[in-house]
Amino acid sequence: MLEVEVKRMNEFELSEHLLTCVTRIRRVLDERLKEHGLSVARKRMLGALTEGPVRQAALASAFEVAPRTVTELVDGLERDGFVERRGDPQDRRVRLVCITPAGRRANERAMIARAEVIPQMFADLSEEDRAALLRMLVAVDKRVASMSAAGLGAGDRSAVIPLDAPFIAGDVQR
Amino acid sequence: MLEVEVKRMNEFELSEHLLTCVTRIRRVLDERLKEHGLSVARKRMLGALTEGPVRQAALASAFEVAPRTVTELVDGLERDGFVERRGDPQDRRVRLVCITPAGRRANERAMIARAEVIPQMFADLSEEDRAALLRMLVAVDKRVASMSAAGLGAGDRSAVIPLDAPFIAGDVQR
DNA sequence: GCTAGTTGTTGTGGGCCCTCACAATGAGGG
DNA sequence: CCCTCATTGTGAGGGCCCACAACAACTAGC
Description:
The structure is a homodimer. Chain A is mainly alpha-helical. The first copy, chain A, has one domain (about 10-145): Arc Repressor Mutant, subunit A (Orthogonal Bundle), CATH 1.10.10. Helix content of chain A is about 60%, strand content about 5%. Chain A has helices at about 5-35, 40-50, 55-65, 65-80, 100-120, 125-145, and strands at about 55, 85, 95-100. The first copy, chain A, has a three-stranded antiparallel sheet with strand order 1-3-2. In chain A, a hairpin with a 7-residue loop joins β2 (about 85) and β3. In chain A, α3 crosses α4. The longest helix of chain A is centred in the first third of the chain and has 32 residues, at about 5-35. The interface between A and B is large, with 59 and 58 residues. Chain B binds a DNA duplex through α1, α2 and α4.
């Protein structure tokens, strides 16, 4: 094991760890949210709707998923009574997605469940570690974003919201 | 923006960044591997087979996916001629998965493609950063692993290989 | 031998995500 | 007015992942 080999392998090991670690995080989160009829993706959608009706295209670009994926998620949320679709009188192509009271309650339960789980995950990291981790993620993300062909659905219809934007609060243009 | 609020939000922001960043990484990787008829999951399977036949249950526990997922992946790889299934004379329940010459070539092409992409992703991180990132991932992962109900398919029949194990080389028991 | 439990794999059904193709609507130029 | 062009959302089809249930084969105990 030469020094050079170790250095070369480091990035691969890192990426592999990143993938598996995040897979596990996602699993735990989904597991907890499942009790409230949600999932990571569904809760994200719901969170973005708490401040008012949103069009599906805005959800798609905000969360960087294909429009088709939003259709699917909203279908499920509508079926479970968490959201409603309403036509927009101004633009009849648009169907505005609105959260229902039941959806609002589910979202709050999900936020509580998440708050019980996420701090635990990072409990062994110091304040400096977390800051460093965030900084590194931003650096990596910047590189990765420049590498992708960035198709995502039916052409790049929408400006991609940068990762720095606060996804949590659901700061989505309507 | 009080100090307390910043601290509380930090973990949530961190987890959100982690998920989106890794999603993007996976997208770029899949995009590059697609040219060679592979994907992240398929390449992982193929990599584990380069040193000899493996049973599907071993693949499932090595990569922490459900046995059903392995069936699906192997189905696809077999359809594309990258692997073959052979019965095990010793244990006729078992179907050993073997890599074909075509599969070996695809795996090598995939490794080259990956080597062209992954170092670029971490190019802005110093050697110390990478070491710190790895350390943090292990710490987080330890916590996360202890939080999961750990179902994963048909009961916990198999010992889970720890994350420290070298997934890259495909160090799987046969 | 024969039954009971365990292990390995696959069928079914579902969730999340993608791309491609297309209908419907709205906006602008002839 | 009509005809193109862009935008919004969806249907079809595929990949990866899961849980649950069924089935085949091995193993242990009687």
